[in-house]
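Chapter summary example.
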Amino acid sequence: MPPEDDTWAPKSTRVRYPPVLASLQSRLGPLQERPFRLLFSATTVTTFGDAVAAIALAFAILDLPGGTATQLGIVLGARSAANAAVVLVGGVVADRVPRNLVLVGASLVQGAAQAATAALVLSGNATVGLLIALQALYGVGNGFVLPAEVGLVPQTVSAERLQQANALQGLSRNVVFAVGPAVGGVLVVAGSPGLALLLDAASFVVCAAMLSRIAVTAAERESRTGFLRELREGWREFVSRTWLWATVVLFGIGNFMWSGCWAVLGPTIAKHELGGAGAWAAIVTAFGVGSIVGGVCALRIAPSRPLVACIVSASPLTVLLLGLAFTAPVWLMSVLAFVGGLALALHLTLWFTVFQQNVPEQAQSRVSSYDALGSFVLIPVSLAIVGPVAAALGTEATLIGAAIVDVLCLGLMLLIPSVWAIRPGKGATTMAVQ
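The structure predicted for these 434 residues follows.
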């Protein structure tokens, strides 16, 4: 089916634009295709809800009687553990079932979890145990999201617009993450964390309604076999590409070191040293603003070695940990967060584009589930243990150690020959770099 724009019209009937407008139209071209426009709108709405709720959940836990960084880590760890437990199932399901419907179901599960969490917080009946259970339910829904979305993007947009589509997806997230934390901070300070969580729940309902209107089919495959066999087929595709499995392992180690420090120690340091929820909201908002700039840059860049550029662009994130380690003032942390957000936007756009261009479409959800599992499986452990580790070793030593390991992981990735062999392409192929 041709895209819904004028590129398929006879040349004599196409609208002519001034050069500047023509360039802008080219960059935003994916939004002219209705399936992608619906996906873009749905993810923008739900990402805004999550951005608002992120700060709210952290301070809802820290504001409980006796609330600690360790309890925050346990709740977030339970959510991540549930995500990791189902992500492989999500990959198989998303290669079997229309991927937009997988996302609809996931959104409804996540919305129900956040609505119940909001009700507990607003009523004053929240406990750590109940929040663990509800955020684990949220994690189950979330485990289906990444495999389905990674495979859905190429189904909703023309192949030549794939990197732009990934950049726009990232840009929309980055824009709302610049605004969402500020809104969440206001709701936490002026009202209750429960209000922000309730807004998040509503966003999932809106998201599900939009996703249900996308017209796509299940991925085309030669045959459908048993669940375990399909998992093995996905595994073979994953391990057959050294650039993929090796970088996923190293990113997994880096994420283990980074995630707990940022998600648990960051709000804790802000609460006790930097002024509380407002300070952390400012830092996270700066991260979001940087991500917007990075998303705009990602619409234009075309590196000759995209995977090398992807890896290098992740390096500024380690500097954020050093800023926390030395309790940098809010203004400096905001500057570092801006740079980190810009870097992460470039990194994610390049990663998803390389993945989608070098993994066969009919296996993308299963392979991306192994990618997600390898990248994130250690995060629950990180979230759960970073509080006790920081208490034993000291917060400063913990953060500096994590930054050093992150840098080593990135350096090792650049020693992999097939990382340098990846070149830009226009579509996934079975002849991709191994």
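To summarize the output: Residues 242-274 form the longest helix (33 residues).
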